[in-house]
Amino acid sequence: MDSGSDSDDARINVSGRRQRREPQGEMPPPETVPDSTDANGYNLRSRNKKHRRLDRDRMKDARNNRRKRKAANKDLLGASGGYAWEDEIKRSWDLVTVDDEGDMTSLVASLVEARKKRAAKRDVTPYQRGIIRTLILTLDCSESMTEKDLRPNRHAMMIQYAIDFVHEFFDENPISQIGIVIMRNGLAHLVSSVSGNPQDHLDALKHMRKQEPKGNPSLQNALELARGLLLPVPSHSTREVLIIFGSLSSTDPGDIHQTIASLVDEKIRVKVIGLSAQVAVCKELCKLTNFGDDSFYKILLDETHFKDLFDEAVTPLPVNKINKGFTLVKMGFPTRVFESVPTFCSCHSKLIYGGYFCPNCHNKVCSLPTVCPCCDLTLILSTHLARSYHHLMPLKTFNEVDAKETFPTENCFACQRRFPILKNHKSDQLLTSSRYRCDDCRQDFCIDCDVFIHEVLHNCPGCESKPTI
């Protein structure tokens, strides 16, 4: 019985081992899993490989862009090592220093004198200039002029400087004419016709203060309107366009390059003062219309620079060598007549007492200089020609006298006031001589008289007082 049971247990164990082996022997070979495909039949695995490859390329490009950005950002670093806009604001009053005695009088006086000295520096090269000018002042009145980077905003400061420009323009160019055009809502509008009466332009500019800037500017429309206004101008007068452009784009109805080509054919010279970044089409416009000179496109730096750029446009432009022709201009010199009974003037149709009568047609006008409405004769006074002549022969710049030099006199030759004494309290030395000497007559003038002589008189009192043979 025992032997039989042992054999049965052995048989059971063997059969169990066989049963455990049988599943291993009966397992089918591993099947190859086919590539999954989407509904359109595209291989998803190969497509995933392409995506991974694209991701690697994008990451590589991103790393390269970060390296380039870091290299470019080095140009934006300020003096402290951070970005320029993170630097501490340096105000003008923070730069003021005092001497050992706490006195700022000499410092303030030297700063004022330095500013007047810059104002007295003018271009004294005797060029042949067109003293009879016709200028179209084009102002940007688009939405970009509402920016407040100029106080109180661009529009208000532009109008104020334009008013000052009209005053100075007719003071320096009394026989010239101006017209005013604005760019607004994609159109160009004429706000003041071409004339030599400054009051008409001043009234138009003062009325523009009440208008809000709107829309986009159209440089092409403004140039086409200015071109139409300058076409009837005679050949003896220069044709100029001064544009104040504050936008970064122009909404034009056509090809502006054709308009620029027409301006070149008509010999119309354009100058642009930019209030924002440089615009490529403005640079091309100034370069082509000024015989390849791109210096007529200027970008302002601050409020003072804006005023200086306006003042540069007051001086007549030199005549190019291409324009070699000379023209005799017929002008009339009327006499002023006083009347006891008011009569109508032909220029404004207003009742006035007296006026000027044209020597050609005896027509009455109320103010000079102007063009006779009946016979188109230019009516001026002899003083107008004299004020325009100084552009052709400008007065030489006075040289500053060295502070170490021995001074022959203590008073200014023109105003007879004593020269101010600006000393350094610590070293007791003169900061400046405060004397400016004419090279021809060797007379000394103060800085106030120097500025007045070069900006108003245009004649040296010392040279004029010398006896003539």
Rg over C-alpha atoms, rounded to the nearest angstrom: 40 Å
The average pLDDT is: 81
Shape: globular
Count the DSSP helices: 12
Strand order of the largest sheet: 3-2-1-4-5-6
Sheet bearing the most strands, described?
6 strands, mixed
Strand elements, count: 19
What is the name of the CATH superfamily of the domain at 133-314? von Willebrand factor, type A domain
The structure class reads alpha/beta
Cα-to-Cα separation, first versus last residue: 170 Å
What fold name stands as the CATH topology of the domain at 133-314? Rossmann fold
- What is the level-2 CATH architecture name of the domain at 133-314? 3-Layer(aba) Sandwich
Q: Would you identify the regions where 5 or more consecutive residues have pLDDT less than 50?
A: 14-26
Bin the helical content.
25-40%
Q: What fraction of residues sit in β-strands? A: 15-25%
At the first level of CATH, the class of the domain at 133-314 is: Alpha Beta
Keywords: DNA damage, DNA repair, Metal-binding, Nucleus, Transcription, Transcription regulation, Zinc, Zinc-finger
Biased composition (Basic and acidic residues): 54-64
Family: Belongs to the GTF2H2 family.
Organism: Huiozyma naganishii (strain ATCC MYA-139 / BCRC 22969 / CBS 8797 / KCTC 17520 / NBRC 10181 / NCYC 3082 / Yp74L-3) (Yeast)
